[in-house]
Amino acid sequence: MPTVAPLDLEGHVVTCAFLGDIPVFATAAGTIHRLDGGEKVTEAHQGLLACVKDTSNQTLVTGGEDGKVLRIAHDGSVTELAHVPRKWISVVAAGPQGAVGYSYGKVAHVRLADGTTKEFSEERTVEGIDFAPKGMRIAVARYNGVTLHWVGASGAPVDLEWKGAHTGVTFSPDGRFIVTTMQENALHGWKLDSKANDTRHMRMTGYPSKVKSLSWSVKGKWLASSGAPAAIVWPFSSKDGPMGKAPLELGTRANIMVSQVAFHPAEEVLAIGFVDGMILAVRIADGKEALLRRPGKGAITSLGWSATGKLVAFASDAGDCGVIDITA
């Protein structure tokens, strides 16, 4: 079995990731813990609400109850990107060329690398933001759908409508699809066809609980999701994505729900975290499973692969975290 280097922190840990080769863990209290020649701590927020790794894999982008949006580097240094007093920053996103998205209320903001900020108003509260893989474009999740905005160009926004509360949004790695998590136990997707100026809907239903974790495989052939007692993995390799196709069910455990999924950075291997703290790795090709960690104190809240794909960081809502060496 792989070796696990444990790290016990206090309380709920929101996100774990590798910045370069340094594992970092961000707690809901607002502290960032780095394992860099020992444990080192950065006091970042008074209450952390959102945290993502940027596209260069070198910094975290965080938002908090203190109204701040921060960029945190692998050495623990902190750069304040925005400060909105008396607002909670509960949505952040990292984009190309150093761009950062964040929101409060009904307004999405994009801060470019030169410090310029663009604002995009919605009729309903912004629930999620994601950057397109190519071109400076964002998708904004809201009630009853998604709005697409060009950041640098003066094109009209595109509305993708579907009734219900959309709580998060992701572009496929090739930019052909958009998928949202929903308040109901379902995903919703749109196929973007720029030539035909057409969009097609995809309903991905049948989950016993809400989907809170999504992960694309390295080339975008698969989209893994939580929300069931197995990782539900939808096929996106054909031109119409998962329309009319059944998903794979990987790492099935009777009545124990998957809470987190994370694809390997180079191979079609999926790390699956469960509500009892157990972690499996499953190979897409043949469904072969490897136990990475036995059950722990709390539900897995985040999984992060190193760039080499040899290490997996994990975090939980009880603070029992660590790093798994899958080569050991």
TrEMBL record:
Pfam families: WD40 (PF00400). PANTHER family: HELP DOMAIN-CONTAINING PROTEIN, WD-40 REPEAT PROTEIN. InterPro entries: Quinoprotein_ADH-like_sf (IPR011047), WD40/YVTN_repeat-like_dom_sf (IPR015943), WD40_rpt (IPR001680), WD_repeat_EMAP (IPR050630). Keywords: Repeat, WD repeat. It comes from the Bacteria. This is WD40 repeat domain-containing protein.
